[in-house]
Amino acid sequence: MTSSSPSQGAPPNARDPMDPKRLADWELPDEDHVLERVRFHLHDQYFSGEEAFSTSRAPFWMSWQWGAGLAAAAVCAVVVWMGTMPGTAPLKMEYKGAIQKLASAKSSPQQPTKLSVSSQEKGEVSVPNKWQVVAQSDTSLTFSPASSQQHVKLHKGYIGVHVVPKQMKSFVVQVKNVNVVVKGTRFSVERTPQWLRVEVWRGRVEVQTAQDSRYSLPKGKGLRWSWKSMRAVEYDLPPKKSSLGSRWRWVARNQGVQSMVAYLDDMVESRRFSKLDKAEHLMDAANWARRKGALRTALNLKWRAYQLVPRGEGSDLRLFQAISSCQEALAAHAPRCASMMSTFQKAYPSASADWLTSIHFWQARANASQAKSVKSFRRHLLDFVRRYPKDGRVMKVRRWLSLSRQRSSVLLCREYRLSNPSSLPNDSWLFQRCKSK
After folding, report:
1. What predicted TM-score, i.e. pTM, was given to this entire model?
2. Tens of pLDDT along 185-198?
């Protein structure tokens, strides 16, 4: 490189601004600080029109004094020149699987590359021996031109990342105004409209937010960032990466039912799994919660499973089991249970005879519970007996009818309330008979 001579019209005592003696008087920033500023400057060039890499940073040209700015510009020029030296092959990204490259107005190697993966598909982007990104179903992301300082912007969905140690100066995943910075590790990043999850399976990553908060996550740690509250919650990971079913079971055993429910709530919002898969896992988790005595949790999970897939394979079974859990957790006379039973009868008029009989039994018991007189109480139960004389529950109903004729209500209250343990409506005949027993 040759330096240009001073202009012929310059005064004889003028000093060249690049004179080494003058450069020695400047207070230059340290190398790490210079490289960090250069990285942010280059990122803004690659991702023009996107959100700022860090909203809390001042513009590049305002960061230093004039002299220090010239030095940074010189460093920047050297970095770019070295990256394009003759004989040095540029890094090239490779694509596998269901990756769709979105067309751009400017098809240049120096422009960002926007990619997407269709629903229920998977794709991979990599630079051999440098890094690998696996994108799951319904994911959209943008890559800066491949270099030793790689930037990936995740617009939606889930990616698993493997960065080979000591092969990259930096690897940054940007999600809105949150950055995940790493040099060598395996980790995953998932983005939904409600939250961001970062999970580290090997190495260590740093999560940086627009509020200048920094979270250092080692192997075996995860972080959930809420877009609404702008708060982070760190949590432990299983010993190894596992399937959705193994994961929620591990959370339930090691962190409790409420943590399991919170994890499943997030997975319902995730784009990685089909609605049917989510519904099946919610039903399995509900049965697990029921065995542990968490009846209301079981009810809520089953109802959510039905809401995910209200039509199609298994939807009638999911709704029926939700109604069954409602009998255990609340009571047949609870408005929520009554609404669910009404929904079942309208949606599945030709369902299994056994299911419809059970629905009618629960409805008869609910109506009798709310009856305001003994005559009304008996009428609702007799309707069920006449309609299903051979059903196995008829014997129980006949006993309730027989006990309702007796002057003493002790046995009726004991048996009826054991079968339906939740509190009765205060204005019902049964409540009035049982309140002093």
Report:
1. 0.73
2. 999 999 999 999 99
